[in-house]
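Hi,

Apologies if this is the wrong queue. I'm a grad student, and the batch job for Transcription antitermination protein NusB from Deinococcus yavapaiensis KR-236 produced an output file that my downstream script rejects. I'm not sure whether the problem is my script or the file. Here is the sequence I used:
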Amino acid sequence: MRRRDTGPASGRRAAREFAFQVIFESAQGGLPLAEALTRAEGAMRTGGDLHAALDADTLTFARELVETFEARRHDVDEVLHRTIHGWSFGQLAQTDLNILRLATSELLDVEQPPVPIIESAVRIARKFGGDESGRFVNGVLASVLRTLGRDAGEKPRDA
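Support response: The file is valid. Your script probably expects a header line. Output copied below for reference.
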């Protein structure tokens, strides 16, 4: 998972990619998420190979994504277990699993429109996963929406 970006990245997709990398590194390294986040931020600030520079707002959103996943981890895994039939988490590519976890944690928030979440997850899967990862992630997240009783075309609810 090596990549090099030279300019600052901004936007929700960049934040989701950064959050995915933190979650992936935590899972692979057996690190608490907070420690993986601190390490990733340090690597980003020092020009590390893995993390593009994020502007302040994008980094704040990335932190929120990681914190949301950590708070909802049990619910996220429960939804994924109900959705993914015939596969255990151990059988899934870890990139795909962690992309699914991040996206599902966002999809649990009914205030967020699902389409941009799924589109970002598919793009991240194509970038970091295997040849079929994009299709697999798209299909699973469509099933997650059905499991959650959500519609891909729904608009965000007013607060």
